[in-house]
Amino acid sequence: MAAKLRIKCPHCGEVNNFGSVNDTCPKCNKPLGLEEEGSIYIYRQGSPYGIAGGFGLFINEQPHGYIGNKELLRIPVKFGTYNIHSAVGMSRKCKDLQVTVTPENPVVYTKVYIKPGFWTNSFVVEYVDPKLLDL
């Protein structure tokens, strides 16, 4: 499974899938020019729950688009600590995951899924073994 490269343009804030960190933003036509130090991989488990819509992704409370069913994203980041949150529509209940990207641990692998509840569903973001992702 190939990961889509998801980047938020540092100039205009547009979120898109790109082929490289050196591509040009389709909205503002400026080169991305990112200095990638590490990556966060986010996988959405295949599930019949929420299959019709994408899960909204937020990293440090900033929107990073949506992730579809059985989709794998790679988000280039600088070294630091990041909070990953997911939500759909009115459902904002999520067990967030805080990850730290360092020179010793430059790549972090996570997954997001819906945990069904009696009255409402909640989202869960947790670490995943990269061997399960078919990279």
3D architecture notes:
With 135 residues, the protein is mostly beta strands. It has one domain: Immunoglobulin-like. It contains no helices and eleven strands. The chain has strands spanning 4-8, 15-18, 38-44, 55-59, 62-67, 72-77, 80-87, 94-95, 97-101, 107-115, 122-127. Strands 2-1-6-3-10-11-8 form a seven-stranded mixed sheet, with no helix packed on it. A four-stranded antiparallel sheet has the order 5-4-7-9, with no helix packed on it.
Brief summary of the model shown:
The chain is mostly beta strands and 135 residues long.
Radius of gyration: 15 Å
Mean pLDDT: 86
Number of DSSP strand runs: 11
> Strand arrangement, largest sheet?
2-1-6-3-10-11-8
Percent in helix = under 10%
Tally of individual helices:
0
Strand content: over 45%
Shape: globular
Q: Provide the CATH architecture.
A: Sandwich
Search tags:
135 residues, mainly beta, Immunoglobulin-like, 4-stranded antiparallel beta sheet
List the helices and strands and how they pair.
Elements (H helix, E strand, L loop, with lengths): L3 E5 L6 E4 L19 E7 L10 E5 L2 E6 L4 E6 L2 E8 L6 E2 L1 E5 L5 E9 L6 E6 L8
